[in-house]
Amino acid sequence: xxxxxxxxxxxxxxxxxxxxxxxxxxxxxxxxxxxxxxxxxxxxxxxxxxxxxxxxxxxxxxxxxxxxxxxxxxxxxxxxxxxxxxxxxxxxxxxxxxxxxxxxxxxxxxxxxxxxxxxx
Length: 120
Known about the structure:
about 120 residues; alpha+beta; about 60% helix; YhjD-like; YhjD
């Protein structure tokens, strides 16, 4: 059972997911720039706008964590799970995430930041 209020846990998780998303976007931008697209700039612009938005939100989350004396650290990772340490106002909690869930949530965020409707 966590002692971290839902709102604060959501901000900690934002600080967990957004760096993953940023890494994906930056790698994809390079792939687009190196790809054989006839016209690359619209795709690059979309990804760059998403990168700017992610960086802005990550900065907001980081500032909030510092202000509220919260920390996030990856402790260990294996093929199936990743464990994180959440430090909330001096109290440490360990949270384990199923790696496919991390990937799926990162994909959801990617769709949000790229403004893609997944309902088809």
